[in-house]
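Cross-posted from the bioinformatics board.
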Amino acid sequence: MVSESSDSNANEQFARLYATHHLDLLRYVLTLVPDMSQAEDIVQETARVLWRKAADYDPDRPFLPWARKAAWLEVLKHRRTYARRRELLFSDTLLETLAEERVVNEDALQMRREALEKCLQRLDPKSRGILLDRFGEKRSLVEIAEREGRTANALYVAMHRIRQRLLECVRRSIQSEGQAS
Amino acid sequence: MKPETDPEEFTRLVSRLFDEELTDRDRARLQQILEADADARMTYLQLVDMQVKMSCIVLPAVEADDERETSQSVVPIPDAFPWRWAAAALVAAGLLLNALLTRLDRPVDRAGARPGPTNVGNAGRSPGPPLMPVLAPDAWGETFESGPVEGWIGRWTEDGLPSESGGGIESVTLTNRFVRYHRISPPRWNAAGLFTVRSNSHLRMTYKVESPTWFNVFLGTRPEDPGEPPYVLHQFADHRLWSEAGRWRRAVIPLRQFQRKVDGVFTDAPPVAGEAAMDLFFSAVDNGLALTIDRIEITSDGPGALELSDLE
């Protein structure tokens, strides 16, 4: 029977820890495997591995580095599969560099994420509509283009412009707060 | 960035990468830039973060009455983006589920052709239109032992079940116009309902989640009071249901611990005895939930408190 036992508390704590860092892991994996669907699969598999090894986790140590190690191994496993299909994007060397720089630059990236949140709220209505369609309704750009009577290329260009505007907004925001990189 | 890196070209390449429009030539060029230019790598990391942030966007919450389709044909652009929270935020705040319960538009998996769940109890069913009001029984259940059951939302399975079990049901992933979500639910019986809620009704189930992924249990009832809406939703949200994963468990949940939705908010009020249960579903929003139920039943008695135990 469940009770307020130490085991139950430990499980709850572990579940909350994982949930707290879920997006950190997704960002880490997407850096290395820049396909959202594949990255989500890898993160899900990482979650299973972490859960199986929960007893090995030392709660006195930070959770994220431990979790990243597991994610890294899952990324490597994934690469072995996709190498056979010649679908790898990044070389082994670049992969290691990106993984390291993801961690090293975390503070600067966090600042930029906070600025991004505000920049997203300031997007023009048309751009927000595209993002809502693309990510809220999970539609492909081709589907959105068909619905709006535009070419697919026009939507790809629109997404590119949105990303550029957001990058520029983040850059200005960081500079104006006196927090140059 | 380095002088030889064109920022416009670089962001276009990464944009096409995330929009799945990268050619082989583009891939080689992107790799070349990233290897050579540290500033480009920093921009790439920012674009990764941007992609994750955008992937968390959800449409504005629109809750459709279960008796009618939503009449909205154009999604309004909100003043602020609503964000999907990671599982931790949902555990901490319990925010999103209130807003995402809508009719199913495109179920992708329905169980097979066997007629409906086994009714165990003290009320019969007429094959034709009832001449008198028919009460749903006090008890109800399904073991899935005889194969797929018609009308269930879920995927019947005989794999990975407790020993001596001949069938169970797995959650499936569905989409409606707003969101992707995971679900198991029995067929809705519009006449009398699945069962009648009693003061000491309990939900009992044998189930397993593959990983600690949250889900909630929902109960829809038809109030007896004609002054109330024709359908009232109740929610049972308890992390203990899913925080232990990877093994079979039994749960006994008193229905009076479900929270009744009043004026759009889940309150501490329980379901009312005498109401017909029209809906019972297990649901989570796009979090990769892998839930399997081996058996499920409603009884009119029980311990009066949540009980969870591992299957021996």
